[in-house]
Write a structure and sequence with these properties.
5 strands; globular; 279 residues; 54% helix; alpha/beta; 13 helices
């Protein structure tokens, strides 16, 4: 699949951030989008898209951001950056927003420059998938393997494959293959295939998306293509996965694969030591 060159920055009505129009590539600003329109806009948006919103806009004193909470309930896979003045009377809300699943918070006060926003957007990139992946990986998965998988997650949300993973890590394809082998991971193409499946399953877990919308958002030509791919990797249909937690089931299958590869890696290294070859 061809990697997307831009990331949609979907700005909801009410955001007051000077210089927003000067945000640099790869972000493309669109909006303002009303709260009434947001579901339709994000339902088929690519997973690299970011929603920028002011959680206080349209709320009354004492409200606990009901619109934002409901949006994240319908689309927990959504990358949301909250923009508001970071001052004494708002700092207490930051922890709540991050706990709900907001990826980053950006200051709309004097420190809220386009450069600062761009830094927050970079940090938020692929945060929902990376957050879920980090929680789901078994404790036996080593540090280098985790770093490679998290990098693969960043590539997956933009529709990239093994060549894009090599480019992100700034290594040659052959070097990447060797690094994956040393980390007891599948070859790079298989790593990215798994990331695409995990991404699709994360979208399937969104109550606000249909199977078709999830397939469209992560680049499958039809919902049938998504069902077939998920079935091959996870051994269950999309409807069955949605009932039981699609991401959790897919992550369990990935952990089984990684456990087998770690055992094979230990055996391989043991045989190399017995033979006196470098491990």
């Amino acid at each position: 699949m061809k990697r997307r060159n831009t990331r949609r920055l979907i700005v909801l009505e009410g955001v007051q951030l000077p210089g927003l129009e000067r945000v640099a590539a790869p972000y493309a600003v669109e909006g303002p989008v009303s709260w009434a329109e947001v579901d339709e806009v994000v339902r088929t948006a690519p997973p690299s898209a970011v929603v920028l919103l002011d959680p206080y806009a349209g709320t009354r004193p004492g409200d606990a951001f009901p619109r934002l909470h409901e949006l994240l309930g319908r689309f927990p896979s959504l990358t949301v950056v909250a923009a508001f003045p970071l001052q004494a009377d708002t700092m207490g809300d930051v922890a709540t927003l991050l706990e709900w699943g907001v990826a980053e918070v950006v200051d709309t006060g004097p420190e809220g420059t386009p450069r600062a926003l761009h830094a927050r957007l970079r940090q938020a990139h692929a945060r929902p998938l990376k957050r879920r992946l980090e929680r789901a990986l078994a404790t036996g998965v080593g540090g280098d393997a985790r770093n490679l998988l998290l990098a693969a997650a960043e590539v997956a949300v933009e529709g990239g494959g093994a060549p894009e993973l090599s480019a992100l890590l700034q290594v040659a394809p052959r070097t990447l293959t060797e690094r994956c082998s040393r980390a007891d991971l599948p070859p790079p193409r298989q790593v990215q295939a798994w990331m695409r499946i995990l991404l699709a399953c994360m979208l399937l877990d969104d109550p606000g998306r249909t199977v078709y919308a999830a397939a469209w958002a992560c680049g499958y030509s039809t919902d049938r293509s998504l069902r077939r791919a998920v079935g091959e990797f996870v051994g269950a249909g999309a409807a069955e996965l949605r009932r039981g937690g699609a991401f959790e089931q897919a992550a369990r299958e990935l952990n089984t694969v990684l456990s087998r590869l770690r055992e094979e890696g230990r055996e391989r290294r043991r045989a190399q030591r017995v033979a006196g070859r470098p491990v």
